Structure formats: structure tokens, C-alpha cells
TrEMBL record:
InterPro entries: HAD-like_hydrolase_sf, HAD-like_sf, HAD_2, HAD_sf, PGP-like_dom2. This is HAD family hydrolase. The lineage of its organism: Bacteria, Bacillati, Cyanobacteriota, Cyanophyceae, Coleofasciculales. The keyword Glycoprotein does not apply. SUPFAM superfamilies: HAD-like.
Length: 220
């Protein structure tokens, strides 16, 4: 029997290859507002960071009141074009099937808009594996705020102890979320996270391929 009873997955860069969609939609958003877009490498470096923060990083002069319009524009591009450019990492189906077969509860926590997160999961045909999907709905706290665990997840699984929960994510935001909530965390080193930042946070486990997660969740 697995030592873990609940696995909290990130989405972008952990389960799904989303950088082609994110890069394309981000560039088009900057172009819409006649602002020079960042490079593809720069955009990829902030995947997993909330949109408002990402736009501020690359356009420090943006006014606070303008950010919602930028976010809305980005999400419009994402809904109409971005969803078609998302694919799963090789091995994801096997991992979530193995976890489900072990009787583990599977949850997704992402900074992606809840609507698009659910659409992507359905399009990728993995939505049925997850008991709970938490995205950015403008009301629920977002990572790395630990209150998303305490207020939105823990009450649904009251019998599961903190040491029976594993967070799996590729960015420093995921690792900080786990650390803030006092949870074990597996860094998905194959994703988009900054290696130095992530290793500095001392993840419990590191995997270079998502298939390596199977041995972790099956270990007693």
C-alpha cells in the first residue's frame, strides 16, 4: 500500500506540454497592446507564475487597472487557439492509471483559469481520473498560498493526514506551495521550472521523467 493517499498534481509542465500554447497566446497579447513581446525563452521561464505577475515582469510599466484587460485578451486567444496546442507528456496516462489503481485520490491545483483547465483535461481525456480540479477562479487562493490546501482540499479529505499527501509540480511555485502547507513534494525536473530555484527548495523527490513517479507512489 502506498505511503501516500492523495496526490496533488500541477498541470502546465507537469502533466501537459503547454508551452507552445502559452508562448503563442502571450506573444499575441503583447502585440494586441502594441508592446514588444518577450522572447519565447523568457515566456517559458515564467510558466506556472500567475498571469498578472508574469505580465508585470515583462511589462513593468503596465498600470494595475490595465492588467485585467491583458488577462482577458490572453484567455480569449487561449480559448480559441491555445487549447488546440496542448499535449500530454509521454507516460502521463500510465502514471495516473497506476495511481488510480492503487486507490489514491488525485487532485489538480493550477494557476490556469479553471474553465480552460477543465476544457483541457476533457480534451486530453484524463478528466475522469481527478476527484477535484482547482484553478484560478478569481476567488479561491492560488499557489503558493497554502490556504488553497487548507480551505479547498483538506476539508474534502478529512481523514488523510498531511504526511500522506504528495505534491507533484515543475516550478518553484509548486515547491513553495508544498513547503508552505507542510507537504512532501516531487519536483518534475522535465518541466519548465528553473533548476537552481527548485533545487534550492529541497524537494522530497526529483524525477526526470513522469514515469519515475510510479515507483514513488507504489513504495510503502
Amino acid at each position: 500500500m502506498s505511503r501516500y493517499q492523495l496526490i496533488i498534481f500541477d498541470f502546465d509542465g507537469t502533466l501537459a506540454i503547454t508551452h507552445p500554447a502559452i508562448i503563442s497566446c502571450a506573444i499575441k497579447t503583447f502585440q494586441t497592446f502594441n508592446v514588444k513581446p518577450p522572447t519565447e525563452e523568457q515566456i517559458q521561464s515564467v510558466i506556472g507564475v500567475p498571469l498578472a505577475e508574469a505580465f508585470t515582469i515583462f511589462h513593468p510599466a503596465i498600470a494595475t487597472e490595465e492588467i485585467p484587460q491583458w488577462i482577458e485578451t490572453y484567455r480569449l486567444f487561449y480559448q480559441t487557439e491555445g487549447l488546440l496546442k496542448i499535449n500530454l507528456f509521454s507516460g502521463v496516462n500510465q502514471v495516473i492509471h497506476a495511481a488510480s489503481s492503487e486507490g489514491l485520490n488525485l487532485v489538480i491545483v493550477s494557476v490556469k483559469h479553471t474553465k480552460f483547465l477543465n476544457l483541457a483535461l476533457k480534451e486530453l481525456k484524463i478528466n475522469s481520473y481527478f476527484d477535484l480540479v482547482i484553478g484560478d477562479d478569481g476567488q479561491t487562493p492560488i499557489k503558493p498560498d497554502a490556504s488553497v490546501f487548507y480551505s479547498a482540499i483538506q476539508p474534502i479529505y478529512p481523514d488523510i493526514q498531511s504526511n500522506e499527501v504528495l505534491v507533484v509540480g515543475d516550478s518553484h511555485v509548486d515547491l513553495l506551495f508544498a513547503k508552505n502547507a507542510g507537504l512532501d513534494v516531487c519536483w518534475a525536473a522535465y518541466g519548465y521550472g528553473d533548476r537552481a530555484k527548485c533545487l534550492a527548495l529541497n524537494p522530497t523527490f526529483v524525477v526526470n521523467d513522469i514515469s519515475e513517479l510510479i515507483s514513488i507512489i507504489q513504495k510503502e
